[in-house]
């Protein structure tokens, strides 16, 4: 059974907005006292919260599907629907949030940071809000929009000041247990740690965190063993401590060879852009297990050569705690030096300038796509896509209201400029979207139409004839009457009938 998870795919679905209500207030002696439909509530958001008390992504590995609450429906008597409660997901500090394409959205490195990964849908407006002086009793309301949904990748990178690196069974877990209150698994047989362990060390005035990174082997940067899976936990560390086993009985291994292998793997690991390469960070060497006589002799033998390479070397024993005090103080000094340099950089960091959105920015884009039966005009934009989602297409008045909103932001004119004509195929939204045949006649003035509630006269098939059409129809009737009189006169002259017989 998994006990530590540092990478997980989260399937999120934010709450849907509630629909608006269509209602007319009825009182005694006032059967139609005006619209009183309430608005629908907004759907709940899904929020990630960087919580210092959380150390693993295990809960999301077991339950990867998360959904927030839907918004309530609007009701009559101006009663608005309740807003859906947001869903807060606590994650460890140091979690990197990526989208399904692998693009980094945010790096939660500060405790208490909140990030909305899925926004809830908008609640629909009721007919009381849609009423105006010219549309006094709307027979429609807006629908609630669906919330955002998709896959989010969470990747944990441990935030520690010092990382312990070395071969398996070099004594890293024993060291972190000896200098902190952490209790990692320790045994008297060789094995490797399966997940990083964190510990807090207090050395005089210095207080810092250390991480026990699972053992590295040759080829770890290429995917061998568990090293590649956990090398990313070293990315955020300010300093590295090489823990070297001086009492190993494995053939072909010695402290210098082990250090060369670890350095090679650290150099081959690519760090994110803007970060210091691993081998360029401050490093110390701890020759462990000097409580064994043979190990002490080996440590004294290799120490001069390690110091010639520029390393500061400490001979320690996690069993007898020999040399641990000086090691913890040296690590504390490195961490404090790093913190001072970071604070200086933060003081010199440039100011963040908030640039407002331009006023004349178009709220939509029109793409001309080729099709089997001619060009297809696709409309992309936050507003038109949301308006389509809010429209009840079974209600003619709601469709007319959508036509008015589309015309007011200039989509009609933009379609004309793009080459669209009456009957052209127009799609609103990405993918399949909403497809319809464009009719430029369905434009504005829906408020001025005196049609029954829930209908729109612009959808009627009865077309008012023009003056020329009425004149042609009048002439046709006169000609028909003249032909009928002439036919009767010719029949009378032929003796087919007489006026006396008619009487």
Automatic annotation (TrEMBL):
It is found in: Cytoplasm. Belongs to the TRAFAC class OBG-HflX-like GTPase superfamily. OBG GTPase family. This is GTPase Obg. Its cofactor is Mg(2+). Residues 456-494 have a biased composition (Basic and acidic residues). Monomer. HAMAP family: GTPase_Obg. An essential GTPase which binds GTP, GDP and possibly (p)ppGpp with moderate affinity, with high nucleotide exchange rates and a fairly low GTP hydrolysis rate. Plays a role in control of the cell cycle, stress response, ribosome biogenesis and in those bacteria that undergo differentiation, in morphogenesis control. Its EC number is 3.6.5.-. Pfam families: DUF1967, GTP1_OBG, MMR_HSR1. Residues 456-503 are annotated as: Disordered. It comes from Paramicrobacterium chengjingii.
